[in-house]
Amino acid sequence: MNALAQMKESASAGRICPQDYAYAPSVLARAPDFETKTFYVVGGLYGNAAALAAIKAMAAAENAELVFNGDFHWFDADPDWFAEIEHGVAPYRALRGNVETEIARTADIGVAAATVSRAAARTACARCQGQPRSANNAKPSTTSGSA
Q: Is residue 1 part of a domain?
């Protein structure tokens, strides 16, 4: 039995973490990508356009950098709403979260399902395709500064 079949057999729904969710330690063991006095780590935006606007305003008021740690999509199932979030996050450093990883899948591995059409989402989401939209978000970032 292969590893995926064993994982499916031994886990109940929602109780596994596919191996491709993890970053190898070597990816993060490097010099910082940037330095700043203040930065906000934004996690679990889940398609909330109002929250995105609010956090951008807060960061601007403090001259803070924004770093998104994934899962900026989920409830933004409407293609226009999805695109709004995608374009709103695009200028900042960001990691691909499990939501974006699932959207990028070309085959169902039997453990998770996205709420948006994968084909439509991949078309709108360059990060989900593994293509950075700017030098700022090409790879996971380590940082210097204060949270």
A: no
8 A C-beta contact, residue 74 and residue 99:
yes
Domain count, the chain: 1
**Residue 74 falls within a domain, yes or no?**
yes
Inside any domain, residue 25: no
Do the beta carbons of residue 52 and residue 88 sit within 8 Å?
yes
Q: Which domain holds residue 63?
A: 35-141
Look at residue 71 and tell me if it is in a domain.
Answer: yes
Sequential pLDDT tens for the chain (147 residues): 565 665 555 555 556 777 777 778 888 899 988 899 999 999 999 999 999 999 999 999 999 999 999 999 888 888 999 999 999 999 999 988 888 888 888 777 665 444 444 445 545 555 555 444 333 333 333 333 433
Compute the distance between CA of residue 62 and CA of residue 65 in angstroms, rounded to an integer.
9
64 close to 92: Cβ distance less than 8 angstroms: no
Its pTM stands at 0.63
d(CA 77, CA 118): 10
